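Issue: copy button drops trailing tokens. Both records pasted manually instead:
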Amino acid sequence: MKLKTFTPAEVTGRKVLMRVDFNVPFKNGKVTDDSRIRAHWSTLKKLIDARAKVALVSHFGRPKGKVDPAFSISQIVPDIEKAYGLKVVFVDDCVGEKVAKAVDALNPGEIVVLENSRYHPEEQKNDPDFAKAMAAPFDVFVMDAFSASHRADCSTCGVIPFVKEAFAGDLLEREGEMLGAVSENPAKPYVLILGGAKVSDKIAIVGNLLDKADTILIGGGMAYTFLKAQGKEIGKSLCDTERLDFAKDTLKKAAEKGVKILLPVDSVVASAMDATDTEVVTSDAMPADKMGLDIGPETAKKFAAALEGAKSILWNGPMGVFEDPKFAEGTKYLAEAVAKMTQEHGTISVIGGGDTASAVRQFKVADKVSHVSTGGGASLEYCEGKKLPGMEPFRA
């Protein structure tokens, strides 16, 4: 997807409201991963170099429309300053006179960080009066928070009618370009990798991409619903019983269309996630008292072999409970295989955000794939073919 972006001349010296995503992992008073903060630097630097006066607005956590110090963006200001290498001004609201005065007082090229937009219940209701108030101090709106682009909030799209001009930022543009490359008209052969726990999360993406994929690899918890649909014993493994008919139908449609669907031929199992009685079993010999928690070594090899020759790869959902070393090897093996295809063969590889993004960072291959999406839900909805309210207004 091509998006409308700004030139330096279009923002020089102007007051700019930039929607970012500062909803970062935060534990014990510390940001544990500042990737989302750093992802906006390209766009922000262009605005700073153009001597724009910039205010950054974001949500943080789920304060549910109320002021709650636990969700104050003031807590992450030091991390913002560290990531960008500059001092910022913090304003304890995102609308009103305080914001207008702070922006007016900026020197060209300086920035302010606004308080959590979700302190106001009107934000997620996309209330037009609130959007108008949020936009009032500004000339230009720049949307750069892809991970929030599937939400029709005041700060993602509602402000657009109330500013002179609106543009997509570099991050939003990059997401549209890369996700479009693996979901709209992917270079073939095209391999779709699906994992994670729930089949229901992936129904729409399967429906949208079944006609485009050449091969679909299914691992993670969702694989056991498909194995059950084939009549196999899955023990205590996850099973979405309400989606068994969908799984059967998908397998049938894929066969009719000539699309290969590969399911696990073996699994790493245990009696519980915190148990130590792990073993590798074939998919035809699942113990009734155990659950599959990772794809097995033979499956990992078969999945990696299925990537050979691929021109495009989209991966959404890990192959197992990768956070636990006992169940991490399948996801790690596949992550390294995807990285190898990218580095050695020029394959376009896109990681669909969320847990999969966490996994490729954990296994230190995030910089060896083509693109790691910053949005879990947003990337899923994009690849489902949905129109995202925070992206559509900028479609070129």
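Record 2 (pasted manually too):
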Amino acid sequence: MKTLKFMGHSDDTFGEYGTTMDDIDNAGSGEPIQCVIEADGTALIVTGQYDRNGTGTWDIGISLQDEDLSYPDWDMRISFEGYTTVLEIDVPDDFELTWYNNGERSV
């Protein structure tokens, strides 16, 4: 198992800082940044968005990627660090991450 740790930084960067150290910078646009986690035949979408309600904080949401996939049995924890929500997810070692900036796939 690996632990993924999703959180936002400043007003423009959202990423995973527990295992991969991958992130996306959206230049402070306020648009959502998404990451698809795939493993064991299932997938979750993690979304980070800064200042959605004019609060100066990062929101994090999770959802299933597809209604036909079973919900993964991965342990998840939510906490807070300063102005960001933090989401930790324990995933299998053979996971894959795919990043999107406002719905557009990032390379």
